[in-house]
Amino acid sequence: MKNLTFIFLTLMIISCQSNLEKELKSAKKITVVAHRGASGYLPEHTLPSKVMAHAMNADYIEQDLVLSKDDIPIVIHDILLDDVTNVSEKYPNRKREDGKYYVIDFTFEELKKLEVTERFDSKTGLQIYPNRFPKGVSSFRLHSFQDEIELIQGLNKSTGKNIGIYPEIKKPKFHHENGKDFSKIVLEILTRYGYSSKDDQCILQCFDAQELERIRNELKSKLFLVQLMEFPEQKNLLAFYASYADGIGPWYKHLISSKTTSGFSLTSIVEDAHKLGLVVHPYTFREDSLDEFDSFQQMIDVIIHKAGADGGFTDFPDRMREALESK
């Protein structure tokens, strides 16, 4: 009888532990990052797209940053203006020898005169995502990093939320070649607005490992840093990234090794990163660009629930939140 009681109690303990583990797993905080704002609904990196992302309760809102001629960080995805503005119409004689228009060649006042539209192919003029906000409709403008910080902080105050910012320093080598210490300028602005430690609602990201390491070691930043990853072979550098960064941002496809009729096989990137104490925020979850997935829900299930990513970048923050909560 004592043996049966012991067995019964042991099974009860195992069952309780199993249920607790499931509860803890389901309660794990998944970070929803609004990729270029709510860019699935409004032109990317426009202030209206950021307001919409804030209303959709993203945890963080992303800002890609490029410097203007007069050293103002501009919120735009590329160092070029060609694919999201009417620069060729407004300033036809300001292109470089390669035929392209660079943000760094224009002052902030000049940039504010440009119309921003849904991303398009500058060669064909065709919209990249045809079912998104119509190209050339309404009126949108470029804005500074400071403008966006003040908008998000203002919305946080008026709504009682605490949504963070997730800036990316774009092409630091290009800026260095043009005589500008881009990272130093960005860090000074962040400090001025109250972002200086890992406890603040700011995650700073960059593809350039040399520059991100410099931000940590030479510029002495104590912010939460994420090393963006472009190539699958970078998984071999995780230990190096962990020496200065707090997380990684890989392309979501690098988390998948293969797809068969029975499901998806995964790489070890997330597991390896977690062992090193790195969070994993893959990019980009797009409802209108599913590729190997049958649905947006399946995409979330595979990358977040199966692979174990800690969140990710999405053009559709509301849909990602819904997909996460439906599990």
Q: How do the helices and strands follow one another from N- to C-terminus? A: HEHEEHHHEHHEHEHEEEHEHEH
By CATH, the architecture is named: Alpha-Beta Barrel
Global Rg: 22 Å
Looking at the structure, what is the overall shape? Answer: globular
**Unreliable stretches, pLDDT < 50, 5 or more residues?**
4-27
User: What is the makeup of the main sheet?
Assistant: 5 strands, mixed
In terms of quaternary structure, what is this? single chain
Beta-sheet strand percentage? Answer: 15-25%
Mean pLDDT: 93
Whole-number count of domains: 1
Structural commentary:
The longest helix is centred in the first third of the chain and has 25 residues, at 2-26. The chain has 12 helices and 11 strands. Helices cover 35% and strands 15% of the residues. The protein has one domain (30-325): Phosphatidylinositol (PI) phosphodiesterase (TIM Barrel), CATH 3.20.20. The model is unreliable at 4-27 (pLDDT under 50). The protein is globular and about 55 Å long. Strands 1, 2, 3, 4 and 11 form a 5-stranded mixed sheet that branches. Strand 5 (203-206), helix 8 and strand 6 form a beta-alpha-beta unit. It has helices spanning 2-26, 47-55, 87-90, 108-111, 145-159, 172-177, 182-192, 209-217, 238-241, 269-275, 296-306, 317-325; strands at 31-34, 60-67, 73-75, 164-169, 203-206, 224-229, 247-250, 256-260, 263-266, 279-280, 311-314. The chain is of the alpha/beta class and 327 residues long.
